[in-house]
Design brief:
By secondary structure, the chain is an alpha+beta fold. The protein folds into two domains: 8-43; 45-178, Alpha-Beta Complex (Nucleoside Triphosphate Pyrophosphohydrolase). It contains three helices and ten strands. The protein has helices at residues 87-99, 151-159, 166-178, and strands at residues 8-17, 21-29, 35-43, 45-52, 58-66, 71-75, 78-82, 101-113, 122-133, 145-150. The strands form three sheets. A four-stranded mixed β-sheet has the order 7-4-9-8, sandwiched between helices. A three-stranded antiparallel β-sheet has the order 1-2-3, with no helix packed on it. The longest helix is centred in the middle third of the chain and has 13 residues, at 87-99. The radius of gyration is 18 Å and the shape is elongated. 24% of the residues are buried.
Protein backbone atom coordinates (compact mmCIF):
# COMPACT_ATOMS: atom_id res chain seq x y z
CA UNK A 1 0.00 0.00 0.00
CA UNK A 2 1.39 3.40 -1.01
CA UNK A 3 0.60 6.35 1.23
CA UNK A 4 1.28 9.78 -0.21
CA UNK A 5 3.05 12.35 1.96
CA UNK A 6 0.32 14.56 3.50
CA UNK A 7 2.84 17.27 4.44
CA UNK A 8 3.42 20.22 2.09
CA UNK A 9 6.87 21.80 2.13
CA UNK A 10 6.99 25.46 1.06
CA UNK A 11 10.76 25.90 1.43
CA UNK A 12 13.75 24.51 3.30
CA UNK A 13 16.80 26.29 4.62
CA UNK A 14 20.06 24.89 5.94
CA UNK A 15 20.59 26.06 9.53
CA UNK A 16 23.81 24.22 10.45
CA UNK A 17 26.19 21.62 9.06
CA UNK A 18 29.29 19.76 10.29
CA UNK A 19 31.00 16.53 9.15
CA UNK A 20 28.33 14.36 10.87
CA UNK A 21 24.98 16.16 10.64
CA UNK A 22 22.95 18.78 8.81
CA UNK A 23 20.13 20.71 10.47
CA UNK A 24 17.44 22.22 8.28
CA UNK A 25 14.28 24.15 8.94
CA UNK A 26 11.28 23.56 6.68
CA UNK A 27 8.28 25.84 6.25
CA UNK A 28 5.38 23.38 6.07
CA UNK A 29 1.67 22.83 6.01
CA UNK A 30 0.81 19.90 8.29
CA UNK A 31 -1.71 17.21 7.31
CA UNK A 32 -4.25 19.12 9.45
CA UNK A 33 -3.82 22.26 7.33
CA UNK A 34 -1.92 24.15 10.02
CA UNK A 35 1.11 26.08 8.78
CA UNK A 36 4.36 26.07 10.73
CA UNK A 37 8.01 25.08 10.79
CA UNK A 38 9.65 21.70 11.17
CA UNK A 39 13.27 21.15 12.18
CA UNK A 40 15.05 18.08 10.83
CA UNK A 41 18.45 16.66 11.78
CA UNK A 42 19.90 14.68 8.87
CA UNK A 43 22.74 12.30 9.63
CA UNK A 44 25.52 11.87 7.10
CA UNK A 45 26.21 8.35 8.42
CA UNK A 46 24.03 5.50 9.55
CA UNK A 47 24.16 4.10 13.07
CA UNK A 48 25.55 0.61 13.61
CA UNK A 49 25.17 -1.48 16.77
CA UNK A 50 26.75 -4.88 17.30
CA UNK A 51 25.93 -7.52 19.91
CA UNK A 52 28.83 -9.96 20.13
CA UNK A 53 27.91 -13.33 21.64
CA UNK A 54 30.40 -16.11 22.32
CA UNK A 55 29.69 -19.84 22.65
CA UNK A 56 29.13 -19.48 26.42
CA UNK A 57 26.53 -16.71 25.80
CA UNK A 58 28.77 -13.91 27.05
CA UNK A 59 28.68 -10.49 25.43
CA UNK A 60 30.73 -7.29 25.54
CA UNK A 61 29.47 -3.80 26.35
CA UNK A 62 31.36 -0.54 26.26
CA UNK A 63 31.12 2.38 28.65
CA UNK A 64 31.85 5.97 27.86
CA UNK A 65 30.88 9.47 28.84
CA UNK A 66 28.28 10.85 26.41
CA UNK A 67 28.76 14.56 25.96
CA UNK A 68 25.21 15.48 24.77
CA UNK A 69 23.62 13.72 27.75
CA UNK A 70 26.27 14.78 30.28
CA UNK A 71 26.40 11.26 31.71
CA UNK A 72 28.25 7.95 31.57
CA UNK A 73 26.59 5.34 29.36
CA UNK A 74 26.91 1.57 28.98
CA UNK A 75 26.11 0.45 25.43
CA UNK A 76 26.62 -2.32 22.93
CA UNK A 77 29.60 -1.67 20.64
CA UNK A 78 28.48 0.86 18.05
CA UNK A 79 29.46 3.63 15.71
CA UNK A 80 28.69 5.47 12.54
CA UNK A 81 29.04 4.11 9.06
CA UNK A 82 29.62 6.05 5.89
CA UNK A 83 26.72 5.60 3.52
CA UNK A 84 29.24 4.55 0.85
CA UNK A 85 30.20 1.53 3.01
CA UNK A 86 27.94 -1.43 3.67
CA UNK A 87 26.41 -1.69 7.15
CA UNK A 88 28.13 -5.10 7.48
CA UNK A 89 31.59 -3.70 6.77
CA UNK A 90 31.02 -0.93 9.30
CA UNK A 91 29.77 -3.42 11.91
CA UNK A 92 32.90 -5.55 11.55
CA UNK A 93 35.16 -2.47 11.75
CA UNK A 94 33.40 -0.97 14.78
CA UNK A 95 33.39 -4.30 16.63
CA UNK A 96 37.14 -4.68 16.08
CA UNK A 97 37.92 -1.05 16.97
CA UNK A 98 35.89 -0.97 20.18
CA UNK A 99 36.35 -4.49 21.55
CA UNK A 100 39.20 -6.06 19.58
CA UNK A 101 36.79 -8.82 18.51
CA UNK A 102 36.68 -10.26 15.00
CA UNK A 103 33.39 -11.92 14.06
CA UNK A 104 33.42 -14.91 11.73
CA UNK A 105 29.60 -14.75 11.53
CA UNK A 106 27.54 -11.56 11.30
CA UNK A 107 23.74 -11.45 11.10
CA UNK A 108 21.63 -8.34 10.71
CA UNK A 109 18.81 -8.58 13.25
CA UNK A 110 17.24 -5.14 13.13
CA UNK A 111 16.73 -1.89 11.26
CA UNK A 112 15.41 1.04 13.26
CA UNK A 113 14.86 4.78 13.17
CA UNK A 114 16.35 6.34 16.27
CA UNK A 115 14.08 9.36 16.80
CA UNK A 116 11.90 9.69 13.72
CA UNK A 117 10.10 12.85 14.84
CA UNK A 118 13.28 14.97 14.47
CA UNK A 119 15.84 12.93 12.54
CA UNK A 120 16.21 10.73 9.49
CA UNK A 121 18.87 8.54 11.17
CA UNK A 122 18.71 4.84 10.28
CA UNK A 123 20.24 2.28 12.61
CA UNK A 124 21.26 -1.31 11.93
CA UNK A 125 21.88 -3.90 14.65
CA UNK A 126 23.95 -7.01 14.06
CA UNK A 127 24.53 -10.20 16.01
CA UNK A 128 28.23 -11.13 15.88
CA UNK A 129 29.22 -14.75 16.53
CA UNK A 130 32.20 -17.09 16.16
CA UNK A 131 34.45 -14.51 17.75
CA UNK A 132 38.23 -14.18 17.76
CA UNK A 133 39.76 -11.89 20.38
CA UNK A 134 42.31 -9.31 19.30
CA UNK A 135 43.40 -5.72 20.05
CA UNK A 136 41.21 -2.64 20.23
CA UNK A 137 41.74 0.36 17.94
CA UNK A 138 39.82 3.22 19.58
CA UNK A 139 39.05 6.40 17.64
CA UNK A 140 41.01 9.49 18.71
CA UNK A 141 38.00 10.85 20.67
CA UNK A 142 37.10 7.57 22.39
CA UNK A 143 38.00 6.62 25.93
CA UNK A 144 36.10 3.38 26.39
CA UNK A 145 35.77 0.86 29.17
CA UNK A 146 35.12 -2.66 27.88
CA UNK A 147 33.16 -5.15 29.95
CA UNK A 148 32.62 -8.85 29.20
CA UNK A 149 29.54 -10.25 30.95
CA UNK A 150 26.84 -12.89 30.52
CA UNK A 151 24.36 -11.92 27.81
CA UNK A 152 21.48 -12.35 30.27
CA UNK A 153 23.08 -9.73 32.54
CA UNK A 154 23.31 -7.22 29.67
CA UNK A 155 19.65 -7.90 28.86
CA UNK A 156 18.77 -7.37 32.54
CA UNK A 157 20.69 -4.06 32.47
CA UNK A 158 18.56 -2.93 29.51
CA UNK A 159 15.37 -3.98 31.29
CA UNK A 160 16.41 -2.15 34.50
CA UNK A 161 17.42 1.13 32.78
CA UNK A 162 21.12 0.62 33.46
CA UNK A 163 21.55 0.61 29.67
CA UNK A 164 19.42 3.39 28.17
CA UNK A 165 20.87 3.94 24.68
CA UNK A 166 17.98 3.26 22.28
CA UNK A 167 19.91 1.10 19.81
CA UNK A 168 21.45 -0.93 22.65
CA UNK A 169 18.11 -1.52 24.39
CA UNK A 170 16.30 -2.45 21.17
CA UNK A 171 19.10 -4.76 20.07
CA UNK A 172 19.46 -6.51 23.43
CA UNK A 173 15.71 -7.07 23.72
CA UNK A 174 15.63 -8.45 20.17
CA UNK A 175 18.49 -10.84 21.01
CA UNK A 176 16.63 -11.91 24.16
CA UNK A 177 13.69 -12.93 21.98
CA UNK A 178 15.92 -14.62 19.41
CA UNK A 179 17.65 -16.73 22.07
CA UNK A 180 14.42 -17.10 24.09
CA UNK A 181 15.89 -15.66 27.30
Amino acid sequence: MTILNPWRVHYSRLVYENPWIKVREDSVTAPTGKEGIYGVVSFKNYAIGIIPVDKQFNTWIVGQYRYPLNLYSWEIPMGGGKKTDTPEATALRELREETGLIAQKLTQIMILHTSNCVTDEVGYVFLAEDLIEGKTEFDETEKLEIRKLPLVEAIRMAENNEITDAISVAGLLKVARLFRF
